[in-house]
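User: Hey, quick favor. My workstation is busy. Could you predict this chain's structure for me?
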Amino acid sequence: MSGFTAVAALLALVALVYGAIYGVSWLASVARSPLTAAPFTGGMPAAEHAASRFHVRWYAITMLFLAFDMEMIFMYPWTRVVSSRCCPSAIA
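Assistant: No problem, here it is.
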């Protein structure tokens, strides 16, 4: 089996699985009808759009949090490697 044949077979298998999943979801779907009631919000209609509640200053704080959060995700494995090299008995 050449490389192209293997890729074509895998692509055909993926297309078949995708089609089967799509077909099952289409057969099992419920008929859509328009929403007749608004979401419950304490009994009062919504006064503003959901995305307009947040002040723009929270954007900068969120970006800082995500930056430091990503930094910690990458720093933890680095600390494990460094601690295993400097003192192997410290690894539990």
